[in-house]
Amino acid sequence: MHAAFGDLDVTPEVITGSEEARLSFLGATGDLRAARIPGPYLVIDIGGGSTEFVRGRLR
User: Fold this and answer.
1) For the whole model, what pTM was predicted?
2) pLDDT score recorded for residue 1
3) Who's near 45: CB < 8 A, 6+ residues apart?
């Protein structure tokens, strides 16, 4: 698997579905948090043969 990254000197890391959902949610709502816009929010991640729904509030 490392060969897929060529000369970038990086190693891929496999994460859980829960961690992927958390990171997707944080990435999609980061500007909302900075602007102090209240939630809750629903983030829909479409791709790779699956669709993921993440609902939450910013703390």
Assistant:
1) 0.66
2) 56
3) 21, 24, 28, 51, 52, 53, 54
